[in-house]
């Protein structure tokens, strides 16, 4: 069936360049190619013309760090409640539609929601009358700002099973999204962090808007970039993934597409129309779904000529973060001495030393593992973090007392030994994650 244009008319035949997909459907399968006008990737230069200044965004780095903490605090308000109404699972035409429906809590993901989504996803995957799965967030502010971390911390300190069950079942859902045989479209409009990244980034199609906000800020609360972060982050261009993982740097709008997190960019005012056009497809295939997404992407004009916010820094980022240890990365930033390098150094120095070391090893090992192998590794890490000090201290400092002054133990990178690190990665025997 011919793909429909944003106006609902059949799309005219397009050139070979426009038929190219916005990004590979699976991570690591090849470099991004654009289906039309789009923000340049960090590895590409721009033609002559005015350059959008990036100074204003970068000088707000610490305000952004504080705003990320505000988002994390919002997650801490959430309560462990019944899932009725917290996630809406609908059959619309030949599509299954998942709506994360906790807008008061930025659609934070809890265990009950996971337990509703997972079996329905499996049912739709097996259903011969379901050809497409769409996931989105309610409320307009967030797709999903992450997991219910305060509940996890409280349960972990009380030796409750919630910390085991949440991570185990969340990672099982991440894997199910990756292996789903039906086209999976995530509309990542608004805040998309942590657990929200896991619900989207492993799907075939990820649609960002000018209001999208992506970050993996886990090292600020004594965790690590999980939900498969060890798989997709090292597969981003150059050392961008290491930079995002260690600093929690926030990407907004078209930058989420330029970085390779999203496969398409669509103006937010067209998002409802895009969804309707996808739902109107009869027996949709991956190819004609991609055609519809490409058509909207190509017609998007917002920030069309905007350069990637990190473009001018990518060569240095690739150099600084190519080091094999956190200590060497820090030394690289110190030796550079530029304002941008010192900004990143100041941010990294706020993070949990243990989390920083875990993250570098996680990404290095994950770069050569399958997603299932990475999720197994991350489950081990999650249980070690919940059983340790820094995660609970990070939750206290950000969510409970809100003093923003966590007392990390150890407090210095030098005190985090190889033996300590090995214990975090240690297999769990019969308690290991199994698929």
UniProtKB/TrEMBL annotation:
GO BP of this protein: L-valine catabolic process
Location of the protein in the cell: Mitochondrion
Swiss-Prot/TrEMBL keywords: Branched-chain amino acid catabolism, Hydrolase, Mitochondrion
Boundaries of every Enoyl-CoA hydratase/isomerase domain copy: 96-425
UniProt pathway: Amino-acid degradation; L-valine degradation
Main location: mitochondrion
Top-tier EC class: hydrolase
GO cellular component: mitochondrion
Renumbered residue ranges of the record's region Disordered: 1-57
EC number(s) from the headed UniProt entry: 3.1.2.4
GO molecular function: 3-hydroxyisobutyryl-CoA hydrolase activity
Catalyzed reactions: 3-hydroxy-2-methylpropanoyl-CoA + H2O = 3-hydroxy-2-methylpropanoate + CoA + H(+)
Domain of life: Eukaryota
Biased composition (Low complexity): 21-45
Coiled-coil boundaries: none
Family to which this protein belongs: Belongs to the enoyl-CoA hydratase/isomerase family.
The protein's role, per its UniProt record: Hydrolyzes 3-hydroxyisobutyryl-CoA (HIBYL-CoA), a saline catabolite. Has high activity toward isobutyryl-CoA. Could be an isobutyryl-CoA dehydrogenase that functions in valine catabolism. Also hydrolyzes 3-hydroxypropanoyl-CoA.
Protein name: 3-hydroxyisobutyryl-CoA hydrolase
Species this protein is from: Vulpes vulpes
